[in-house]
Amino acid sequence: MDYITNKDLDLVGLLQKAHHPAAGAVVLFSGDVRDNNVGKTVDFLEYEAHTSMASKMIESILNDAKNRWRLNIAVAQHRTGKVGIMEAAVVVITASAHRAEAYAANRYIIDRIKHEAPIWKCEFFTDGTKEWGGNCNCHKDTGDVNKHIYEFEDIL
Predict the structure, then answer these.
(1) Which residues pair with 29 in a beta bridge?
(2) Which of 61, 106, 131, 148 has the most CB atoms less than 10 A away?
(3) 65-110 pLDDT, tens per residue?
(4) Distance (Å, rounded) from C-alpha 125 to C-alpha 66?
(5) Spatial distance between the Cα atoms of 14 and 152, rounded to a whole number of angstroms
């Protein structure tokens, strides 16, 4: 599977492949582009990635989650290039015996991808301005720029 792609994400196709006979829960998270941020109207986003490094990191994150929550399935894919309003920029799907594990693992995976993978976002606003970044704001919850929210069991 390509963890990084410049093509539209096929949520239906990915979900169809994410079922397992031992799984009673399948959770799909789709990170979609919204039309506003920081009080401004968003036109579109553009993502860049260090593709080989990001792919290896995502694979490692998925393996960590599979082992930690005994997942039957763990899938993640992130877009690069221009992503329009209401389009999916990232998808994470987890399947496990029970919903608690599927939800916890899904959140863990998306948080780690967002905060650790070398994928960069640029927001293009309708007023002609643009802004890079905005991937990680965990310090608002953890009080430390070096600590991420998924590192605290009681937050998950």
Answers:
(1) 92
(2) 106
(3) 999 999 999 999 999 999 999 999 999 999 999 999 999 999 999 9
(4) 38
(5) 29
Tell me how long the chain is.
156
How far apart CA 63 and CA 50 sit, in angstroms, is 20
Question: Which of left, alpha, beta for 4 (phi over 0: left; psi -120 to 50: alpha)?
Answer: beta
By C-alpha distance, which of 105, 103, 95 is closest to 19?
95
Contacts of 30 (CB under 8 A, 6+ apart): 9, 11, 88, 90, 91
Give the number of C-alpha atoms closer than 13 A to the C-alpha of residue 79, restricted to the C-beta side: 24
Q: Which residues, in sequence order, are bridge partners of residue 41?
A: 36
Helices 51-69 and 99-116 meet at what angle, rounded to 10?
150
> What is the number of H-type helices and E-type strands within the chain?
4, 9
> Which tokens belong to 62?
């998925």
Quick one: CA torsion of 73, 104, 3, 70, rounded to 10 degrees?
A: -30
Report the C-alpha gap between 90 and 29 in whole angstroms: 8
- Overall pTM > 0.85: yes
